[in-house]
Design goal:
The protein is an alpha/beta fold. The chain has a single domain (3-208), classed as 3-Layer(aba) Sandwich (Rossmann fold). It is built from seven helices and nine strands. The chain has a seven-stranded mixed β-sheet with strand order 5-4-3-6-7-8-9, with helices on one face. It has a two-stranded antiparallel ribbon with strand order 1-2. The longest helix is centred in the N-terminal third of the chain and has 14 residues, at 11-24. The protein is globular.
Length: 221
């Protein structure tokens, strides 16, 4: 689509076009699509990229991070198989876009961010949207949130170098964890599903590109 054609579209048309694109790529869960349709991605996008908010691509945000491609947000949310009463742990708040989508499909979302700036900005967006079921924490995402464990679902939005055993230990026996895993620029998106008896079965969903899951917290931002 040309720049002039995109600018001529109404916001409603842009949203509808994105939802149709997600359907064509396999994001078909009606609840997930409705949650994404109701979550204004432009609120989470820096001013420089506002006009591209509803395009199906990742965009830069502060602190060298990104707001994920809508297809990846939809795919991961769908694969998490959320239930309305679920308690969800998200590792990597970022802009807060994925958090907001999760909050519309679950009871509580606990989200951990290592950058103070991103945490504060995301909290302001949650307040603007009236999301009262999101609890934020400044901390090392790799450590999870053991004080609030166990969780029904865990989503990791940064690439772990190896199987996230610390986070799996905070998951209920029948829970589901999604994480990009790998050391290179391209990682594997893996779904870990508990069998209810303490074992987790893994399934590779696709190749993805995420920023790395870093230890500790950022000191300057």
């Amino acid at each position: 689509m040309t720049e002039s054609a995109r600018q001529a579209e109404t916001p409603e048309t842009q949203v509808a076009r994105l939802i149709l694109a997600l359907r064509s790529q396999g994001v078909t869960d009606p609840a997930v699509l409705a949650a994404m349709e109701r979550t204004p991605r432009d609120l989470f996008t820096p001013d420089l990229f506002k006009e591209r908010s509803w395009e199906d691509q990742a965009l830069p945000i502060a602190c060298g991070q990104t707001i994920s491609q809508p297809f990846i947000v939809g795919l991961m949310t769908q694969a998490l198989t959320l239930e309305p009463r679920a308690r969800v742990l998200e590792i990597g708040t970022g802009s807060g876009y994925q958090t907001a989508v999760l909050s519309r499909l679950s009871r509580l979302v606990y989200t951990v961010e290592r950058y103070r700036t991103l945490k504060r900005e995301a909290e302001a967006r949650f307040d603007a949207l009236g999301l009262t079921n999101v609890i934020t924490k400044f901390g090392d995402g790799g450590l999870g949130w053991p004080e609030q464990a166990p969780f029904d679902r865990i989503m990791v939005t940064a690439a772990a170098e190896s199987e996230p055993t610390t986070l799996l230990a905070q998951l209920k026996p029948s829970g589901v964890l999604l994480a990009p895993v790998g050391k290179g620029p391209v990682q594997r998106l893996i779904r870990y599903a508990g069998d209810g008896a303490g074992a987790f079965h893994s399934e590779v969903l696709c190749d993805v590109r995420f920023v790395p899951l870093l230890e500790g917290v950022a000191q300057a931002l």
